[in-house]
User: Fold this.
Amino acid sequence: MRRLASRALHVVIIAACGGTAGVAAAQIVPHTLKPTPSLRVTRPVMTTVPAKPWISRNATFVWDKRGAPASRCSLDRRRWKDCVSPRAYRNLALGTHVFRVRGVDGSRRSSVNRFTWTIARGLPPARPVLDETPEANTISTDAIFVFDVPAGMKHECTLDSSGWQRCSNPAVYAGLGVGAHTFCVRSVSAAGIPSTPSCKSWFIHSPVDPSGTPTPTPPVSAALGITGDLPTTLAPGVGGTVAVRITNPFSIPLTVTALTITVVPGSSNLGCDGSSNLRVEQSNLAGGAVSVVVLAGGSVVLPAQGATAPRVTMRDLPSNQDACKGASFAVSYAAAGSG
Assistant:
């Protein structure tokens, strides 16, 4: 269909007679046309789809209709049906599935948005073996990790809970800061199922300056005893306070100036990763705003001395979280202080 111009020229003929000869004059009158309304229906935009690893037989889809009055959905090429967002499916078969959605406005419909995924058996691959790692206590700010990954598997790494990402082998890090660090590597199958991670923690101490004078006493967080307990049963939107106990094994008092808690990636049920399903609210010790004194041979349970306890809450996600039923999560602690 050709689009009409917004302005058209109308010619009006004015006739005038003089003698026997007729004289015609043309007057040009501008006329504005109203724009033709769009007949298109905007395609919906999916905002939530099944996340890897695709091992759950349940799937939930969320989409933005983008102004369309209604939506229609189709699963695995079945006939189109009216649907609303979110749309959940249960007990799907293993194999490849296709979800399609489109906007509908009366007899008009949008183009189709689709998502394809393959549900595989939830068998994790063997975890990598760490062959070379830094010393447990070192002054080097560089670190090299060499590992063996099962044949045919990809691998991903994370440093200090920075998030899983593809990495080289060996994995090389330079210019790390003084303090505690943790490196983890995991295998990933072709279906996107991760293995149990292999991890290494080590501590970088401050070096001696060129004059031979030692720098201030390095943190002793690697020697502190830190345990925690969460008595609350987690559920979507429900959390609880972690009662963290800091134990001082030394014969002198220790001042703890920093404390963080991290959910160990891959430590729970398959399809229920802690980083995506749990929200951690750190103690105010994490920011160094307060400090806690632990007497020689004694212990302190947070909250105490103005320091708050960390809190863990299960996120209430629009996607399916059935894989987290009955799950347990491992956490790691890092603390720093002086004595």
